[in-house]
Amino acid sequence: MSDTNALDTLIQALRGLPGVGVKSAQRMAFHLLQHDRPAAQFLSRALQQAADTVHHCERCHTFTQDAVCSTCLDERRDRSQLCVVETPADQSAMERTGAYKGLYFVLMGKLSPLDGVGPNDLGFKKLFDRACDGVVQEVILATNFTAEGEATAYVIAEGLKARGLRPTRLARGVPVGSELEYVDLGTIAHALVDRR
Amino acid sequence: MSDTNALDTLIQALRGLPGVGVKSAQRMAFHLLQHDRPAAQFLSRALQQAADTVHHCERCHTFTQDAVCSTCLDERRDRSQLCVVETPADQSAMERTGAYKGLYFVLMGKLSPLDGVGPNDLGFKKLFDRACDGVVQEVILATNFTAEGEATAYVIAEGLKARGLRPTRLARGVPVGSELEYVDLGTIAHALVDRR
Ligand SMILES: [Zn+2]
Ligand SMILES: [Zn+2]
């Protein structure tokens, strides 16, 4: 066996990535050390930089390196619309449709009782306060059309209705069971137009 | 859109890992930043440490942090046997069998003309010199039983035969614990030819 302290540590660390088992981690470590050390150095610096500087926008909760993200600060966005999505990737998918010009609230997750993720973890209180601030006229629920995404949308909708608001939901043009970031942009755009 | 310079850079850097596309990279970045920053810091340090300290054993070419790896230095190993494997992971698999007590030569790859990997990249000259050093009595070819692994074994065998040596190859055969009717026919045919 080779002397593999730093190598074993690297393989163990790579297994901290979601979806990476021991075989994949071995392949990744071998590839980086044998064929692409610059990529290893680049990834090392990118991880440190992101872990040190990326936090959550204090208004919409998405990832940003500033106190408030550029979307929330953008004066051209329609402040009367607030779109609720699960993740920054979902937000990116919405943006790429070019069909939405309002603001966002990014939950950074979804209700998942089995994983211990409840309303407090997703900032529902802050979302409800935001929805009632007098500026927001419409809340569009764009959580994923999965069981957990639907449950999340349902609980948010109930909370908003209790405050006299009537949220809309992306139309079911989005195939049931799929996740937004994998849906083609035209479908998302139609679902936005047909929101109910 | 969020302000994602450090985030975009991280996603781009994660795509430098083999088998990781943009969707996987987004999921990894989200997971690390949202749920496991210690894992991000740990991976960052492990990458830097490995890239800085891991190089190749000057005798067997496997990864090590020293000039010569602990296997090559181990006085209890049988110096008359030299096992040729493709990667450190293959070497580990051989070690875990507990059935081999000799030394190794780790090619750190396999012949792959389409990828520009030739005999010089795999250290064939050094392997042939080693095999002829008078200490080595048997060279066991344990490259993978894939098209490229077989081709690599063939070329090494030809080189050794030209020097008057007769290498051995791991037997091809029916995997232990498997039932004949589920084994592919090529494997059965090889097992029949290699019967003992
Ligand atoms: Zn924001
Ligand atoms: Zn060695």
From TrEMBL, chains A, B:
Matching entries from InterPro entries are given as: DNA_Rcmb_RecR, Rcmb_RecR, Rcmb_RecR_Znf, TOPRIM_dom, TOPRIM_RecR
> Keywords in UniProt for this one?
DNA damage, DNA recombination, DNA repair, Metal-binding, Zinc, Zinc-finger
Q: Name one GO biological process term.
A: DNA repair
List residues of the Toprim domain.
80-175
Family under the similarity heading? Belongs to the RecR family.
Xref: Pfam families: RecR_C (PF21175), RecR_HhH (PF21176), RecR_ZnF (PF02132), Toprim_4 (PF13662)
Q: What is this protein called?
A: Recombination protein RecR
UniProt GO MF annotations:
DNA binding; zinc ion binding
Q: What does this protein do?
A: May play a role in DNA repair. It seems to be involved in an RecBC-independent recombinational process of DNA repair. It may act with RecF and RecO.
Q: Which residue stretches are annotated zinc finger (C4-type)? A: 57-72
